[in-house]
User: What shape does this take?
Amino acid sequence: MLLRLSSLAAGYGLKTVISDVSFALEPGQIMAFLGHNGAGKTTTLKTIMGLLPPRAGEVQFDDKRIDRLSVSDRVAMGLRLLPEGRGIFPDLSVAENIDVVAARNCGPGAMFEIDDVYKLFPVLDERRTTRSGSLSGGQQQMLAMSLAILGTPRCLLLDEPSIGLAPNLVERLFDQVQDVCRAHGVTALLVEQNVAAAMRIADRVVIMNNGQIVFDGLPDEARASNFWNYF
Ligand code: ATP
Assistant: This one.
């Protein structure tokens, strides 16, 4: 298994938001991580990434326990978060955003170098000098995705990448996520409100309700279940 959560709990202040969260992901798997607003999906991603300390349980990556490692150590191991709200530097140009992150994440032999992301998203190549805050929503999301994959990602934690995108752009972006995962064996954990779009590319579906996992199975099993009750 590439990523394994065992009985994970986390929260804020006096409030424990997620508890007893366990699932594991194989290399190359795409998991749709679904659930209503406030269910605890973002909290789970933040805990995996090291932005929030676990209150109980363990996170393992590549069979090593990582829940006490720094965020930068986790990035170096190949964990990448595309945060809710994109996480780009809006005052920098497209090229400056890409160069800053590439300088940090692209070591020798990186899977995705600067030229690779421009090939994957040609519109960003055309907009290299544009201030990234002035890009369209779709282009900003492509930039956010580029920043997440630069270097050698092994597991992408994608927090609602479809927000604000037109349906055709969502399809295209998700096709690109699927291509990256299939071609390079990258794992993706995809938090989505756009259930249909996420299910289209997912190998696996995990549903969270009130901070707990209530379903873990194949997309067809999810479709056949009563999981719609959780939305
Ligand atoms: P959404 O789709 O709305 O982002 P989510 O499933 O990702 O939903 P979380 O963002 O993890 O849910 O939020 C879970 C709970 O934790 C909510 O009740 C939320 O109000 C609370 N919460 C989230 N962030 C904080 C914070 N920084 N401080 C205190 N409570 C928080």
Q: What stands out?
A: The longest helix spans residues 167-184.
